[in-house]
Amino acid sequence: MTNTNKFITFVNQNNIYMEAIVGQRIRNSRIQRGYSLQELADLLGVSKQMICKYEQGQSMPTSEKLIAFSKLFGEKVDYFFRQPEVEIGEINFRKKSNFSSKKINALKEEVRIKIENYLYVENSCNLNMNFVNPLEDLIVRTKEDVISAVDRLRESWNIGNDPIHNIIQLLEDKEIKVIEIEDEFAKFDGLSTIVDNRFYVLVINKNMPVERKRFTILLELGHLLINLSALEEKDKEKYCHAFASEMLLAQKKLYEEFGNRRSGISLEELKNIQKKYGISITAIVYKLSEMKVISKEQMTKFFKDLNFNPTLKQVVETSRFDGVEKSDRYYNLIYRAVAEEYITLSKASALLQLPLEDLKASVTLNLQ
Fold first, then answer.
1. Residue 39 and residue 244: Cα distance in Å, rounded?
2. Inter-CA distances, 343 with 46, 121, 183, 224, Å
3. Strands lying side by side in the sheet with 177-181
4. Is the confidence at residue 16, as pLDDT, over 60?
5. For 236-278, how does the pLDDT look when each residue is reduced to its tens digit (9 = 90+)?
6. What CA–CA distance (Å, rounded) separates 129 from 100?
7. Whole-number Cα distances in Å, 36 to 40, 42, 106, 346
8. How many helices and strands, by DSSP H and E, does the chain display?
9. Which of 5, 56, 179, 307 has the fewest CB atoms within 10 Å distance of its CB?
10. Contact 177, 115 (CB under 8 A)
């Protein structure tokens, strides 16, 4: 009998306790991968009713079926028997009109799994990382309130008005979870949510151009942090755009870079500011017009030229920011937990989705 079958036999002896856990894991994995009950049943060669029984904890899959689930979902067999270390409540995203409910549910389950793993690692390292929102009591009613919110946030986080070189790293250092998703959703940019009223989470498309990625992260941060309850629904997105723009390039910095009033702006200036602050050229031009450094007519001419000049469009849409947008915090915490023997190598292998032998090779140095 293989080790896998021995493990399954042991677990089946504790069937009553485990059925509900196995059923929930199957359901979460099915939804995450976008399978309907019938599609999953067809792939496994069982009835739709049997899949329902599995998911509802009314029946335990056989050893062969659990191995089939494991291969289909890309999980180790013991995943289906592992009780969630951290209970995650309902995850609610702001409505996205271009998302089907099936895609939203799949995304929720992927996020749920990643949040669960992240919080498990933090708990293993004895970290209490609940986020405290420094803008909670500031109600935004005007664009000036947005500027005040950004000023307060930058002061609270002690980051001044200089360019932010790695926004994801900054947010994770400030105890906001940032989860990057490979873009299987054609029009997915980013989403945000608060889990259990404690954990602030941003979900970002990993494969966006860097300037767009930075803007989207801060747009979603605006939705998470600033109080928009006094605004009409149609204005909330606009004010979060203003928040993201101000976080990337503060008004006072824009005046320093361009002056108070310009009769013209060179493309080279725009390219250099794009590179320095990690904000797109189109966003810079829009902000220049909004701050009356250039006229609305100048802005209109720019966007008209952009629409009819493919060469200009290619130049404008080229990424130039030298920085990266990533964080290694989650991975570092896993290696820390292994080094401190808070978790086993096998557990770390599952969390990192890294073969056990590769993981062993990477943790051979232990400074004790």
1. 41
2. 37, 9, 31, 32
3. 177-181, 199-205, 190-195
4. no
5. 999 999 999 999 999 999 999 999 999 999 999 999 999 999 9
6. 33
7. 6, 10, 11, 31
8. 18, 3
9. 307
10. yes
Between the CA of residue 49 and those of 19, 46, 176, what are the distances in Å?
Answer: 16, 8, 41
Whether the CB-CB separation of 212 and 187 falls below 8 Å is answered with no
Residues of the chain with pLDDT > 70, as a percent, come to 88
Question: Does 80 score more than 90 pLDDT?
Answer: no
Instruction: Provide the Cα torsion 363, 121, 166, 322; round to 10°.
Output: 40
The H or E element containing residue 181 is strand 177-181
The single residue listed with the structure tokens 């220049």 is 288
Residue 67 near residue 79 (C-beta atoms within 8 A): no
Q: Which residues contact 260 (CB under 8 A, 6 or more apart)?
A: 293
- Could you read off the pLDDT of 321-359 as tens digits, one per residue? 988 898 889 999 999 999 898 988 888 888 888 888 888
